[in-house]
């Protein structure tokens, strides 16, 4: 049973080549850093194109930023949010609004480069009605070097890991992480919201 399953992994390189970029885009909207490293690793094994990986994760990251902005601008004030976690989020967003109005570029770049603070910063930018063009420009400026660094980490890890280099079956297993990591990231985002806040 197990040998047969492992033999079936030989089909993964072709599957990744056909569907990898669409899956990569969707996953990078939810969780850019982990997915970027995994995709760059696949590129080091010849399963994906490195330049295409970089372009895809940048676009996916910016798409996620746009969704957060929209949520902060049009949804945050309308949802009947309550509970301890939601209260903390509201306080963080309100505290950031003033800083965003005074120094949008500095705050947005800080949010992009510090992953833990990014969620609140992006929501606050929408709530503060930062101009969309300026918002996307600063996020692009932050995303380009951040994504490039993550791509290099994943790529060189794949190139210089003696135990993994050249083993397409293990690379095929790693390809599964593109789907798994996206699902885990989405679950983590959902857990950050207090379910009682929607009652």
Structure description:
The protein has one domain. The chain is 80% helix and 0% strand. It is built from 9 helices and no strands. The protein has helices at 2-8, 12-30, 32-44, 50-75, 84-102, 104-113, 115-127, 132-160, 168-191. It is elongated and about 45 Å long.
Total beta strands: 0
- Radius of gyration, in angstroms, nearest whole number: 19 Å
Count, helices: 9
Mean pLDDT: 74
Low-confidence stretches: 1-10, 190-199
The major pleated sheet works out as: none
Helix content: over 70%
What structural category arises from helix and sheet content? mainly alpha
Q: Which percent range describes the beta-strand content?
A: under 5%
Q: Tell me, what's the shape?
A: elongated
Straight-line distance between termini: 47 Å
Return the domain count.
1
Q: What sequence of helices (H) and strands (E) makes up the elements?
A: HHHHHHHHH
Question: What is the strand and helix layout of this fold?
Answer:
Layout: H1 2-8, H2 12-30, H3 32-44, H4 50-75, H5 84-102, H6 104-113, H7 115-127, H8 132-160, H9 168-191
Helix pairs in contact: 2-3, 2-4, 2-9, 3-4, 3-8, 3-9, 4-7, 4-8, 5-6, 5-7, 6-7, 6-8
